[in-house]
Hints:
CATH topology of the largest domain: Rossmann fold
Low-confidence stretches: none
CATH class of the largest domain: Alpha Beta
Order of helices and strands: EHEHEHEHEHEEHEEEEHEEEEHEEHEEEH
CATH superfamily of the largest domain: ANL, N-terminal domain
Helix content: 25-40%
Number of domains: 2
Number of strands: 20
Amino acid sequence: TTSAPKFVLHRQGAIASHAQQVARVFGFTAPDTLSLSILPLCGVFGFNQTLATLAAGKPCVLVESYEIDEITRLIAHHRPTTLFGSDDMYARLLDLVPGDRPFPSIKWAGYAAFNAALGALPEQAEARGLSLCGLYGMSEVQALYARQPLDAAVARRKLGGGVPTSPLAHVRVRDPESGVLLGAGQPGALECAGPSLMVGYYGNDAATAETITADGYVRTGDLAELDGEGGFTFLSRMGDVLRLSGFLVNPLEIESHVQSIPGISACQTIAVPRSDGVRAISFVILEAGAALDEAGVIAHCRRGLANYKVPLRVFAVDDFPVTPSPNGPKIQRAKLREIAERLLST
């Protein structure tokens, strides 16, 4: 997607056993299960959801297009008990369908957060009877590798990550520079082990050796922290993490703070090396009719963030550069860095 593509190779047995494990743990074996598979099968989230439903011997409705009106019609017609999707999708569904309990058949819904502006969506959905639950997965370990506990408070349940689906799976978090294993609450590089892992990258032994450790863990490339309760919390991609004043900083912290300003609908933040050190640079998309007050945004950040997290500059753009993926568009942060360096040099 955003880098050179690799062919992730899995054993058939690993795919089948993971589907059976997900079916049991996610409750797909219940007599009334009917799954609405909205995400495309070319991505692991749609693929693993569908296989887990079939492994449970239950029906799965495949969605031909991503049109929100059609998804709404299928929910009303088939009354699924479970589905998976992004925050944008759930926000559109809740906007489109009125009522205090618009989707009564859905027991819980798998949820991935991509839009920082929708940070309060899980609480809003909960108030209308739709229980959203954070998940974790990737092609190398398969989707639905972990899920937050369904009985957890929404503040925890909405977070990406969770407790591994398989009792044989294990996660650890490592300092990316020293290599030291970290304890609960300490952000670092996430490594995953378990029966759902890939064999390797087909035809690319060098990439396989870089990704799979000698003791069988996949280096996920994600920033996470152990939660001290048998699970972990996904924070961001390691490639998205900002190293500011020697600290690992999740860009979402800065972006959420910027997006709380009226008139700003979206924000992306990257880091650029400067003569005085690595500094944060933010890009924002403005609401219709709004104007950027760059000094005001920076002052707002100074009031609520540590000094080293305050953006050096804030630029308004019409859109963020993106590349398509099976689970939705991905922001091309490398292109944002190029744009920032160009703007700072003029």
